[in-house]
From TrEMBL:
Lineage: superkingdom: Bacteria
Gene Ontology molecular-function annotations: ATP binding
Record lineage: Bacteria, Bacillati, Actinomycetota, Actinomycetes, Kitasatosporales
Keyword field: ATP-binding, Kinase, Nucleotide-binding, Serine/threonine-protein kinase, Transferase
Gene3D superfamilies the record matches: Histidine kinase-like ATPase, C-terminal domain
Listed name of the protein: ATP-binding protein
InterPro entries in the cross-refs: Anti-sigma-factor_SerPK (IPR050267), HATPase_C_sf (IPR036890), HATPase_dom (IPR003594)
Organism this protein belongs to: Streptomyces viridosporus T7A
Histidine kinase/HSP90-like ATPase domain location: 21-128
Matching Pfam families: HATPase_c_2 (PF13581)
Record keyword Kinase present: yes
Length: 140
């Protein structure tokens, strides 16, 4: 394989609304465990799992939709994508000090190295990226 080839591995799971956020976290943790990150990068694992929780919760609660969760690992990043059926793109907002909710995307913004939202023909996909622990390349 030449140097310009992309090497990646990925996993996908559909999460109906009646399968809670815990199922999404448990599934993601299984794959992070298999990568060895639980032992070598527990802070990154915590950030990924909290992001999974927030994005799947948003799909179920705000989009009133099933969620499709995809994790793909390339040479530099773990890409975490959650697709739902709502076309409304998220925007981080200041919920104020008295608000019970409204902090999900602020958390994602703080936890992920980058994130972006993409409109799709039947909803949207939110992609959060996490640099591979120990990868010193800040460009990816």
């Amino acid at each position: 394989m030449n140097e310009s080839s992309v090497r990646a591995v990925g996993w996908a799971r559909s999460l109906p609304m009646d399968h809670g956020v815990k199922a999404a976290r448990d599934w993601a943790r299984e794959h992070l465990d298999a990568l060895g990150w639980t032992a070598t990068a527990p802070e990154t694992v915590d950030a990924v799992l909290l992001t999974v929780s927030e994005l799947v919760t948003n799909a179920h609660l705000h989009a009133h939709s099933d969620a499709q969760l995809i994790m793909a690992l390339d040479q530099h990043c773990l890409h975490l994508a959650v697709h739902d059926a709502s076309a409304v793109l998220p925007t981080p907002r200041d919920p104020g000090t008295d608000a019970v909710g409204g902090r999900g995307m602020l958390l994602v913004d703080a936890l992920a190295d980058t994130w972006e939202a993409h409109p799709c023909p039947h909803g949207k996909t939110i992609v959060a990226c996490f640099r591979i622990p120990g990868d010193g390349d800040p460009e990816h």
